[in-house]
Amino acid sequence: MKEVLLIITVLFSSFAVTSCTNDEDDQDLEILTPEEETQLKKK
Protein backbone atom coordinates (compact mmCIF):
# COMPACT_ATOMS: atom_id res chain seq x y z
CA MET A 1 0.00 0.00 0.00
CA LYS A 2 2.84 2.40 0.78
CA GLU A 3 4.37 1.75 -2.63
CA VAL A 4 1.12 2.68 -4.37
CA LEU A 5 0.86 5.93 -2.41
CA LEU A 6 4.49 6.70 -3.17
CA ILE A 7 3.96 6.13 -6.90
CA ILE A 8 0.82 8.29 -6.89
CA THR A 9 2.67 11.04 -5.02
CA VAL A 10 5.62 10.97 -7.43
CA LEU A 11 3.33 11.04 -10.48
CA PHE A 12 1.27 13.90 -9.08
CA SER A 13 4.39 15.87 -8.14
CA SER A 14 5.98 15.41 -11.55
CA PHE A 15 2.74 16.46 -13.25
CA ALA A 16 2.50 19.56 -11.06
CA VAL A 17 6.09 20.58 -11.78
CA THR A 18 5.86 20.07 -15.54
CA SER A 19 2.53 21.90 -15.83
CA CYS A 20 3.90 25.01 -14.12
CA THR A 21 6.56 25.76 -16.71
CA ASN A 22 6.32 28.94 -18.73
CA ASP A 23 5.94 28.01 -22.41
CA GLU A 24 5.95 31.59 -23.67
CA ASP A 25 8.75 32.83 -25.86
CA ASP A 26 11.75 34.07 -23.92
CA GLN A 27 12.19 36.80 -26.51
CA ASP A 28 9.06 38.57 -25.26
CA LEU A 29 10.75 39.46 -21.99
CA GLU A 30 11.27 43.21 -21.78
CA ILE A 31 14.10 44.32 -19.52
CA LEU A 32 13.64 47.78 -18.07
CA THR A 33 16.49 49.93 -16.89
CA PRO A 34 15.99 51.90 -13.66
CA GLU A 35 15.63 55.11 -15.68
CA GLU A 36 12.88 53.63 -17.85
CA GLU A 37 11.11 52.33 -14.77
CA THR A 38 11.05 55.73 -13.10
CA GLN A 39 9.79 57.33 -16.31
CA LEU A 40 6.93 54.84 -16.46
CA LYS A 41 6.02 55.52 -12.84
CA LYS A 42 5.86 59.28 -13.48
CA LYS A 43 3.27 58.86 -16.26
TrEMBL record:
Organism domain of life: Bacteria
Name of the molecule in the record: Uncharacterized protein
Species for this entry: Flagellimonas maritima
Source organism phylogeny: Bacteria, Pseudomonadati, Bacteroidota, Flavobacteriia, Flavobacteriales
